[in-house]
Amino acid sequence: MTGQLPIDPAAAASPPESPASGEPALVSVQGLVKYFPIMGGLLRRKVGDIKAVDGVSFDISKGEVFGLVGESGCGKTTLGRAVLYLQRPTAGEVFFDGQNLSTLKANKLRRMRSRMQLIFQDPYGSLNPRMPVSDIVGEGLLAQGMKSSTARERKVEQTMQAVGLRPEYCRRYPHEFSGGQRQRIGIARALALDPDFIVCDEAVSALDVSIQSQILNLMLDLRREFNLTYLFIAHNLSVIEYVSDRIGVMYLGKLVEVATAEQLFKGARHPYSVALLSATPDPDPRVRKKRLVLRGDVPSPANPPSGCRFHTRCWLRERLGNPEICSTVDPPLHDTGGGQMSACHFAEQVSVEAAEEAAATQSVIETAAGAT
Amino acid sequence: MSTVIDLSHVAEAAPGRSIGQKPPDDVLLDVRGLKTYFHVLDGTVPAVDGVDFQIKRGETLGLVGESGCGKSVTSLTIMRLIDIPPGEIAAGEIWFDGVDILSLSPSEMRDIRGSEMSMIFQEPMTSLNPVFTVGYQIAEAVKAHRNVSKNSARDRAIEMLAAVGIPSPERRFKQYPHELSGGMRQRVMIAMALSCDPKLIIADEPTTALDVTIQAQILELMKSIQERTGTALLLITHDLAVVAETVERIAVMYAGRIVEAGTAEEVLLDPKHPYTQGLIASIPSTVPRGQRLNVIKGTVPNPFRMPTGCRFEPRCPHAFGPCKDFDPPLRLTGPNRESACWLQYPPGELPVKETDAPPATPVPVERVGH
Amino acid sequence: MFKPESADSLPIPASAATPSLIDGPELPVDVEVALESLNQWQLAVKRFMRHRMALIGLAMFCFIVLVAIIGPIVAPYNPIDIPGAIHQGGDGPSFTHPMGTDDAGRDVYTMVVNGAHISLAVGFFATVIAGIIGIIVGSISGAAGGVVDNLLMRLVDVTFAVPLLFLILVAAVFFGQGSMVALILIFGILQWGLIARLVRAQFLSLREADFVEAARAVGVGTMRITFRHILPNALGPVIVVMTLLMASNIVLEAFVSFLNFGIAATEPTWGNALSNAQNAMGDGNWWWAFFPGMAIALTVISINFVGDGLHDALDPRARL
After folding, report:
1. Residues of chain B neighbouring A369 (CB-CB closer than 8 A)
2. What Rg value do the Cα atoms of chain A yield, rounded?
3. Percent helix, strand, coil in chain B (nearest 5)?
4. Which helix (H) or strand (E) holds C71?
5. What's the sign of the alpha-carbon dihedral B222, B228, B229, B235?
6. Nearest CA distance, C318 vs chain A (angstrom)
7. C318 pLDDT above the threshold of 60
8. What pLDDT score was predicted for residue C280?
9. Cα(B61)–Cα(B55) distance, integer angstroms
10. Å from A182 to nearest chain C CA?
11. What's the distance, Cα to Cα, between the start and end of chain A in Å?
């Protein structure tokens, strides 16, 4: 940060503040939209849009871990890429450390990349098989203008050490490492640039449990050591619960709930969050709970339901006698108390008891009903 | 963890299961000393290296382990779906419904596969043929094993689609796999697996490719079908939470071996083997936020250079005297409760390395029937 | 399926672990393993060397190349000498003529040996030209996208639409009838589109690869991404296809020469030898067509074996 006021009027227009601390947020996402065109017909003309992310706003303060959870196709990966401006959003703004990324020229954006990084899910596909580890980890340094190869080498060695890899192995190629070690290489690549902010896109999802816990420990250690801020994207609720300070739940391109980890796991305020929590299996065999099973599949993001996007599968709406407002009015994300945000018209009626009652009356076999 | 070995609850050894001897009638599947090796350019990979377990009729067993532990190879060997070569079933017996299926001819095995025992795979898209309708594929499976007319095969297929909760099954019958969602396709796979009333269903990571809410649908469906039909289920997964909710008994695999077996409650609440303990402790939800996760050090052994002693010894926090040099066999520690760890042996039975002392390798305790 | 992990398994004792950050010293510790490992190309060579059929193919091909180079020097006769045959329609194989002679008494063995370098040269250089143009155009097309991509791909469509024989007739006007250079250029011009399409397809899929996105995420520029990340990974399949293309060009050369559209009939090529032998088969003079035909077949088979081996060796998913 230069400390100067941003000259751009758009950037100056909305100085983002994090609601909790009052400090400026490190990352502020405002009304982010990302559509992908659907090409069709003989002339390959645009016939529609995949509404991957459809109006998402949230802030992440410095040093915070913001967890983003949702099922496949909910847009969480696209959101992660769009926040980093690796994919240009269709609409909306991302402020990073007070700067509006949409106003940055390509060259400045490239410089900015050293401060915001990405860790991938697939430890196999995310490393170029034809490059030695030293080049993979050091490439960003070169791109950011560190021309001296000895300086780069020193930094690569330091970084490898920090992620628990032997620096001696920097001349080896990715195929010689195990999945967990490859993931460490991916973390080292992100870390080498001394970033402030890292998007972890399902960074531990492809790993075995025993390796997953090693990598989670490493990521939280690095956070402490280097004062990192994470956007932690995952579909696994137990991982999200463990790492996150605050959690955003996504459904079909929208945030349906934003809450602290404790708020969400003690008393979720959106029917989808409740269903997600209920569907997650518990490793304790004594807790053979009656699950609340959602009907059908997630609707297509090309043609999301009207009103509340969850209303086609909502158990609460059914219990309330299918009120019309659910299918006509899109509920905004609003504070339900204590900073817990929910996008449900009937947020105050969402409770564990209601969910248990709903679960008790449902038929397991018919859960596919209503599927597309 | 206590290292004191309490043997008071060890059950008396029941009539054993010697090699070549037919298991009792209530045992549906009895896998004994199974070894499946793969001969590749660099040598031999002992993917499954001495696996023993039983499934009684109507019982559900979860086979749990991390990638590369041999759980999928075990299931493919039971289905006799291993390519030979490079694979080789090097040793062991697989008794299914009173027959050692390793002695059957390929055509006899084909009669059993898909009818007496059927399999559900992880990725339903690749296990369904994209050029045929799903209904046709189920009907074909029925016709392959039952001497029925085209029409009754069709009726059976529609009946099965309805049984797995697929709405308007007549319409779905005519759809192609790509027209269905992942959860629907997995339902179709289950319908196909069930279509011939199998005695055993092997489900290999059936929900791993699915979202958590769809996983809940499929698990609930499998449970309820299992309860209704009394089919035995072998559920193979890496996810301890999935087995915790689904099966009665659990067998944990590590590096080609079963290291621990018992009921779901016993294994998950009172794990005896350090690997199982580490695995359970690695689950993030078992640890309060902010506290470091427990980890198992290191990685699984290189299959070309398996440790000579216990295969978990290089990663084991409790390794002691005999672990480095002697491979612990499965030992009965309770009724239907087994563990392959020297900690479970009384000090007198531990092998000693001294060359002058006579080797005291204990004879593997024979397993009890259920 | 079971996937053997790399040689990095046995964990070292905790004392050897470096910083305090690491709890699972998940370090590669096999002391026998060298610090520098083989890169993907070296690995491909190693995999290729284990492919028995590929090695047989390579040995055969090397032998054919050797014959093509030194054959004309050691061949017993001059290919354009017309000494006249003893029997009408050519002499059968004998000690003086191991592959017999044609009706003019020319030694078939000498023709086969002298034809080798022309057939191989046409096959090789035509493929190289197609490869160079194809890789450049395909890379530009795949990297640029949009209008440029569209224009270049339509150009490719045009090259596929041009009839081969027409182009050969046109070339005869400029280069003279039966020029080898003309044939090479024509093959190259007609075939680069094949390579370009393949390279473009590779680019399009690799552009979406995680490691390319990772490079963009650390700020790597377009040029470096193209040349360091995409191109090296795109080349494997291209090399395989070029090998097979070379084999098909050798057959194609023989084919057009057989039709008398190719290399001048006075030159000793395999195609010309076959062309001359057209009527001989009916007379039972099998050797005249048989040996040139076998030469073509063995060359193509050997190259295809090599291609097959390369396909397996260059597959990035393959392990040792």
Report:
1. 165, 167
2. 22
3. 35, 20, 45
4. helix C52-74
5. positive
6. 10
7. no
8. 65
9. 7
10. 11
11. 49
Residue B170, pLDDT score? 85
A–B interface: beta-carbon pairs under 8 A: 148
Of chain B, the end-to-end C-alpha distance in Å amounts to: 28
Cross-chain Cβ contact A242/B287 below 8 Å: yes
B326, burial (CB in 10 Å: exposed 0-12, middle 13-18, buried 19+): buried
- A279 CB neighbours in chain B (<8 A) are 212-213, 215-216
* Residue B366 structure tokens: 């024979």
CA C42 to chain centroid, in Å, comes to 20
A365: nearest CB among B182, B224, B241: B224
The SS3 of residue B91 is strand
CA distance A117 to C218: 7
- Nearest-angstrom CA–CA distance, A187 and A204: 11
Q: What is the DSSP letter of C101?
A: B
State pTM to two decimals: 0.79
CB atoms within 10 A of CB C102: 22
Which residue of C29, C218, C226 is the best one to mutate when testing the A interface, meaning the one whose CB has the most A CBs within 10 A?
Answer: C218
Residues facing A48 on adjacent strands: A38
Domain regions of chain C by residue span:
43-68+106-313
* CB < 8 Å to B302, chain C: 4-10, 30
| Closest alpha carbon to B323 in B294, B352, B295, B297 | B352
Peptide bond before residue B85 is cis, with ω within 30 degrees of 0: yes
Whole-angstrom distance, CA of residue C219 vs CA of residue A117: 10
* pLDDT of the residue at A68: 94
Helix axes A149-162, A133-143, angle to 10 degrees: 120
Residue C183 CB contacts under 8 Å (≥ 6 apart), including other chains:
C122, C126, C168, C171, C253, C256, C262, C263
Nearest-10 crossing angle of helices C164-175, C231-258: 80
Q: Could you give the 3-state DSSP secondary structure of residue A243? A: helix
C99: tokens are: 């592959």
Chain B: touching chains (3 or more CB pairs < 8 Å) = A, C
Chain B residue with minimum CA distance to C21: B292
Mark yes or no for CB contact A173/C37 under 8 Å.
Answer: yes
C9 → closest Cβ in B42, B296, B300: B300
Question: What pLDDT, on the 0 to 100 scale, is given for residue B218?
Answer: 83
Verify whether the Cβ–Cβ distance C210 to A130 is below 8 Å.
no
Give residue-wise pLDDT tens across range B40-64: 777 788 888 889 898 998 899 999 9
Place of tokens 């209704």: B228
Q: Report the gap between the CA of A123 and the closest CA in chain B (Å).
A: 14
Q: Answer yes or no: are the C-beta atoms of C26 and A180 closer than 8 Å.
A: yes
CB pair distance less than 8 Å for C10 and B304? no
What are the distances in angstroms from CA A176 to CA A156, B149, B312, C7? Answer: 18, 55, 22, 7
Partner-chain contact A162 C19, CB within 8 Å: yes
ipTM (interface pTM): 0.79
Q: Give A223-257 pLDDT, tens digit per residue.
A: 988 899 999 999 888 889 889 999 999 999 999 99
Distance (Å, whole) CA C18 – CA C35: 17
Residues of chain C in contact with residue A81, where contact means CB-CB under 8 angstroms, are: 213
Q: Where are the beta strands (DSSP E) in C175-248?
A: none
Interface test with B, best of C1, C8, C9 (most B CBs within 10 A): C9
In the stretch 254-293 of chain B, residues with CB closer than 8 A to chain C read 292
Question: What does the pLDDT read at residue A16?
Answer: 47
Tell me the two tokens of residue B217.
């649908």
Query: In angstroms, rounded to a whole number, what is the distance separating the alpha carbons of residues C320 and C317?
Result: 10
For C43-68+106-313, CATH number? Answer: 1.10.3720.10
> What's the residue count for chain A?
372
Query: How many Cβ pairs within 8 Å bridge chains B and C?
Result: 63
What is the amino acid identity at position C312? D
